[in-house]
Amino acid sequence: DDYLIAVKKNNEGLSPRAKLIMQVLEPAYVITNKKFLDKTLELTSKDKIILVDEAFTHEVNEDALSRIRNEQIDTDPLCIICTSGSTGVPKGVVISHRAAIDFTEEASEVMEFSEKEIFANQAPFYFDASVPDLYCTIRNGATVHIMLQRTCPFPWLPTVPTMKPTAPASSSPV
Q1: I want to staple 147 with a disulfide (CB 3.0 to 4.6 A). Which of 40, 56, 122, 132 is the partner?
Q2: Who contacts 24 (Cβ-Cβ below 8 Å, separation ≥6)?
Q3: What global pTM score does this model have?
Q4: Which pLDDT belongs to residue 128?
Q5: 3-state percent breakdown (helix, strand, coil) of the chain, nearest 5
Q6: d(CA 92, CA 30)
Q7: Which SS3 state, helix, strand or coil, does residue 55 take?
Q8: Are the CB atoms for 92 and 81 separated by under 8 Å?
Q9: Which of 126, 132, 68, 138 is nearest to 93 (CA)?
Q10: CB 65: neighbour CB atoms within 10 A?
């Protein structure tokens, strides 16, 4: 199977965890930008790198896209969330399109989310806690504010001046 991987970079370069994740997943491609190309080359060869800076400069192959869309099924992997790995080696948990859709539908119904919601997301995109904020936002046509972790004194209590939660605190989407 072909997988893409998103890797967080720390100030010293790629973390040992990022390198372990790459070894475990063996992704077919890695998406990065020119700014992080040198660090990405520490993980994989240039022929496996897709530069997002150049991704939209190519003509769209509508036939290939149509074929891919027609072959896709709901149990195909959407993403892989890596656990901390109790042995020190991250374990990848595969999330299918169907699982994400089912979760999003259920959460939206139970929490009564609508297009009026304003989510504050401070969880990194590679962390499973970002799923409700992002997917429920897309599903409901809502709004999400992407917050820097350093702006949240208490990560579990994100604060944004424009945030007006309509769901009770006990049913927080995060």
Answers
A1: 122
A2: 82, 89, 90, 91, 92
A3: 0.64
A4: 74
A5: 40, 15, 45
A6: 16
A7: helix
A8: yes
A9: 126
A10: 10
172: Cα separation from own chain's centroid = 20
Place of tokens 């790459």: 22
Q: Are 142 and 136 in contact (CB under 8 A)?
A: yes
Q: What is the pLDDT of residue 80?
A: 83
pLDDT in tens, 95-142: 899 999 999 999 999 999 999 998 888 777 767 777 788 889 999 999
Q: How far apart are CA 101 and CA 19, in angstroms?
A: 30
Of 49, 25, 54, 55, nearest to 37 (Cα)?
Answer: 49
Written as six digits, the tokens of 160 are 């944004």
- The one-letter code for the residue type at 39 is K
Q: Quick count: other Cβ atoms within 10 Å of Cβ 66? A: 10
User: Do residues 101 and 138 make contact, with C-beta atoms less than 8 angstroms apart?
Assistant: no
Quickly state the pLDDT bin for 164 (edges 50, 70, 90).
very low
pLDDT digits (tens, 9 = 90+) for 139-158: 999 998 887 766 665 555 54
Q: If you search the block for the tokens 């046509």, which residue do you land on?
A: 141
Contact assessment for residue 52 and residue 31, using Cβ atoms and an 8 Å cutoff? yes
